[in-house]
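quick q for whoever's on today - can somebody do inverse folding on this one?? i tried earlier but teh output was garbage lol. tokens:
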């Protein structure tokens, strides 16, 4: 497979989004909302319900701008970022979401892994996420159950993909101490667990 169609990849891809570099398995972190349009105001309100500085996690897989997310479509989907620019309005038909790029989280950075291990994990994460999209896994509304693989919410998808090689992104960092939240994998926990670059 050349990775250009279907739900398969056979190598690690790279891309640039608004000047930030991503490779297969890196996490695109966004903030919900766009106050200039009505639907964006709705998503701004949704974002206010999510604790921390990041509201949503998307997994970059490649090639080009192809990504995987569990979001507003009610299932795990693939979509594409075109022309190296995060433009939620132009991607709305693919995603039904309005959000702004906040930054990129690099779960494999500064973990003492060999280049060979990094490539292997990147490929495994990409393949795992694409498999969930291929199977059309539904959105997981039971946020307290991040260990299921029958359904996914956005940060849970990243968490499960990285637990396979033993990297735990459920850190309880970057969020306030909220009752009954210990099991939930919040987007800001994932953000806090990784080296990152913020969009300027």
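ok took a stab at it. sequence:
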């Amino acid at each position: 497979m050349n990775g250009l169609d279907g739900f398969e990849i056979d190598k690690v891809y790279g891309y640039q989004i608004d000047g930030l570099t991503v490779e297969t398995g890196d996490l695109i972190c966004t903030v919900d909302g766009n106050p200039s349009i009505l639907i964006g105001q709705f998503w701004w309100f949704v974002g206010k319900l999510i604790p921390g500085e990041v509201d949503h996690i998307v997994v970059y897989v490649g090639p080009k701008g192809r990504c995987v997310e569990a979001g507003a479509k009610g299932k795990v989907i693939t979509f594409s970022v075109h022309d190296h620019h995060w433009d939620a309005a132009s991607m709305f038909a693919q995603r039904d979401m309005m959000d702004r790029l906040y930054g990129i989280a690099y779960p494999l950075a500064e973990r003492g892994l060999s280049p060979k291990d990094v490539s292997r994990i990147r490929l495994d994460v990409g393949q795992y996420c694409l498999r969930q999209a291929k199977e059309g896994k539904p959105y997981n509304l039971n946020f307290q159950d991040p260990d299921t693989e029958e359904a996914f919410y956005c940060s849970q998808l990243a968490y499960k993909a990285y637990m396979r090689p033993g990297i735990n992104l459920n850190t309880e960092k970057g969020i306030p101490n909220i009752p009954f939240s210990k099991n939930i994998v919040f987007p800001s926990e994932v953000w806090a667990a990784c080296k990152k670059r913020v969009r300027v």
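fwiw The first strand starts at residue 14 and ends at 17. also The helical segments are 38-48, 88-95, 115-134, 154-163, 187-193. so keep that in mind when u check it
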